[in-house]
Amino acid sequence: MNTQAIEDGDSTETELLRAELATLRLELEETRKTTTQYLQNVAHQLTAPLNAIKWNIEAIKDEKIPIPRKKNLLSSIYSQGTILVHLIKNFSLMSNLEADHELGQFRDQPEEVNPLRLAINLISDFQPQAAEMSKQIEIRMLTFDEVFDSESLLVVKNLIAQALSNLLENAIKYSSTGTTIYVAAVVKQQDGCPWRGISVTNAGLRILPEELHHLSDRGFRGSQAKQKIPAGTGIGLYLADKVMRLHQGLVIANAKGPETSMTLLFPPSRIVKAGG
Q: Collapsing DSSP states into helix, strand and coil, what is residue 229?
């Protein structure tokens, strides 16, 4: 190979490296902007319930406030505390889930979880928040008897609880005032066999057809969701999707007009005989 050919080869490789470096710089800058925006949203999300708790406590200290009103304020504090704990759990799960997903394994051992009991406990936590916004949560208990009978979920309980919490929190936040949120057990055909799961259905914001496939993307929020609540992290469904994928399951989204159903769907391998 002559000297000119070697120089031409070196020049081409140098240009390729420069182009790659420029691309990496652009990606780094985009990541920096996204991270900054994300942290700003996190700060706002945490500040809102903390301020609400502070104001309610100040009002309770006022001796002129009647007892019935103070009871309402205490209920509001409980509601805002639930929101705060929910947000903190979401943020703390971020790095752990990324690591678990890369390893393809759990940090904690899966255990048998009664789906009905899990749903009831979480609904109890979120009822005050729903009531404060003039909404209700109703569990369709018969569906759990029909779908799961005497069977349990073989899952990491705290992860599935957080995934279902995210669905409930979104339903409360984006449903219309005066409406009811329904929680039910469902069966859906997947890969030629029945998969079972838990669905949360609410009536409120319309989700555009082209947005459905992006709801689990990190940071994505629907156009109407951003109009109703400008500040948001867009990580709730992203985390739920991560949790379900670790369990070989899926998050299924369905929307028709103002009604939206989000479902945590489990494969047959995650369904076991209770106590078996």
A: coil
CA pair distance 124, 205, nearest whole angstrom: 24
Sign (positive or negative) of CA dihedral 167, 174, 87, 28: positive
Q: Where are the domains of the chain?
A: 3-99, 111-273
Number of H helices, E strands in the chain: 7, 8
Which CATH class, in words, describes the domain spanning 111-273? Answer: alpha beta
Write the burial class of residue 263 (CB in 10 Å: 0-12 exposed, 13-18 middle, 19+ buried).
buried
Which stretches does DSSP call E strand in the chain? 111-113, 136-139, 151-155, 180-190, 193-203, 250-256, 259-266, 271-273
* Each residue's pLDDT tens digit, 251-276: 999 988 889 999 999 999 999 987 76
Kindly state the tokens that stand for 53.
């708790």
Burial call 148-174: b when 16+ CB within 10 Å, e when fewer: beebbbbbbeebbbbbbbbbbbbbbbb
Check: CB of residue 252 under 8 Å from CB of residue 188: yes
Top mean pLDDT of 58-72, 159-173, 213-227 is at 159-173
User: 3-state class of 64 per DSSP?
Assistant: coil
Cβ distance 60 to 70 under 8 Å? yes
Task: Give pTM, 2 decimals.
Answer: 0.71
Q: Give, in degrees to the nearest 5, the angle at Cα 171 between 169 and 172.
A: 65
Three-state DSSP string of 150-182: CEEEEECHHHHHHHHHHHHHHHHHHECCCCEEE
- Does the domain formed by 3-99 have CATH 1.10.287.130? yes
Distance separating alpha carbons of residues 128 and 75, to the nearest angstrom: 7
Judged against a pLDDT cut of 50, whether residue 103 lies above it is answered with no
Strand 271-273 and strand 151-155: the pairing is antiparallel
Mean pLDDT over 183-190 rounds to: 94
